[in-house]
Amino acid sequence: MRVISGEARGIKLETIEGLETRPTTDRVKEAVFSMIQNQIYDARCLDLFSGSGALGIELLSRGARKTIFVESNPRALSAIESNLAKTRLKDRAEILRMDVYEGLKKLTGEPFDIIMCDPPYLKGHVTKTLEAVLQNQLLRPGGILIVEHDAYDDEINHPPNEFQSLKSKKYGKIGVTIFRRNE
Questions:
Q1: How many angstroms separate the CA atoms of 155 and 8, rounded?
Q2: Cα–Cα distance between 174 and 3 in angstroms, integer?
Q3: Quick one: pLDDT at residue 118?
Q4: How far is CA 69 from CA 43, 72, 103, 122, 169, in A?
Q5: Is the pTM of this model over 0.85?
Q6: Would the pLDDT of 49 be above 70?
């Protein structure tokens, strides 16, 4: 896995082995970032269920002002730190070492422009995360939230009313849906 574009382009990223995380493939990353590229520059971003940090690092590499990573797995946290050091993007990053839902409460009232979310599949996290983002006022009106999910998970089709689904794509077993928060 590598950084696809921007100032850290081509740098290989560390991932953690095992079934605890699923690194987003380069193919899926390229597709997602081509869909949101015009909204990244100077954006304040949040990377939930960060894993290796690849999605948040891609945002920083492409010009995001700041990305906050929220992750609780110690091995994943080590990978994020290593990857931020390798890419020299640490100065625009912050890592919250905690459960995602604790992190969302901690960040209450700090709206983001872009939120990336790659939760464990088929465990009810999509709806729970969207609701927590709204409850804690974490996405500015007009902001976008990108969810990577199981391609056949019906949960993605029932977002809270405050979200408009802009685009949904399937890449084999992986689905990606982009939501915009209504103004």
A1: 35
A2: 20
A3: 92
A4: 14, 10, 9, 22, 24
A5: yes
A6: yes
Torsions phi, psi for 25 (to 5 deg): -70, 155
User: Helix 54-61 to helix 26-36 angle, to the nearest 10 degrees?
Assistant: 40
Question: What's the CA gap between 125 and 7, in Å, rounded?
Answer: 32
Closest CA to 116 of 138, 91, 137, 135: 138
Question: Shortest CA distance to 63 belongs to which of 89, 83, 94?
Answer: 89
Provide the token pair at 63. Answer: 């010009």
Q: What share of the chain is helix, strand, coil (3-state, %, to 5)?
A: 35, 30, 40
Report all structural domains of the chain as residue ranges with CATH numbers, in order of start: 31-181 (3.40.50.150)
Q: What is the mean pLDDT of residues 80-93?
A: 97
